[in-house]
Amino acid sequence: MTTVDEPAGRRLTERGAKTRTRIITAATDLMYTRGVGATTLDDVVAASGVSKSQLYHHFAGKDALVRAVIDHSGKRVIDREREALRRVSSIAGLRRWRDALVRNNAVQHGAYGCALGSLASEVADRDDVARQTLSGLFAEWEGLLADVLGRLQDAGTLPDDAPIDELTTGLMGALQGGYLMAQTAHDVTPMATSIDMALNYIESLSAE
């Protein structure tokens, strides 16, 4: 059985694909908790249990591995958010979505921040390919939020002239800013407050 290694255009054996996945998973966990800059390829080799030659067989260097980590983290986040938001069609549903995010972040007292936001802060200014991928992932996430606000508009909860794009950007900004503030404070209260402010404004439009 073979699978396609898309970044390199090669075909991998099932064993090779599992090795590649193990490397990416280990690198993802390390880069999330330590940061991209503080994670070395030797760290990834040790954590994944592969040899350095195996790592270089799959990745030309650290930049290539970081890009694979972005793809992997992005899929995790977008899949999670798609599942969480696909049936949300009310302000109450958005507040439950907010509660779940804050509760999940509280498990580690706000440490490490958003998986995508943390990656963006480290790589966006030095790797344009990575920046574009992250930009696309954030746009996809915003699209899921825009779909929710569109459903609120269709249901009459939001007025027809509600600026959906602007509201979506504001909500995403509150979320990402909240993640960052919670990370620096090691306290999720700022995250909860910032998202609440955005949701309160959205809800205020329904009363006008």
From TrEMBL:
Residues 17-77 form the HTH tetR-type domain. It comes from Terrimesophilobacter mesophilus. Residues 40-59 bind DNA. One of its GO terms (molecular function) is DNA binding. The keyword Ribosomal protein does not apply. Keywords: DNA-binding, Transcription, Transcription regulation. It comes from the Bacteria. InterPro entries: Homeodomain-like_sf, HTH_TetR, Tet_transcr_reg_TetR-rel_C_sf, TetR_C. The lineage of its organism: Bacteria, Bacillati, Actinomycetota, Actinomycetes, Micrococcales. SUPFAM superfamilies: Homeodomain-like (SSF46689), Tetracyclin repressor-like, C-terminal domain (SSF48498). This is TetR/AcrR family transcriptional regulator.
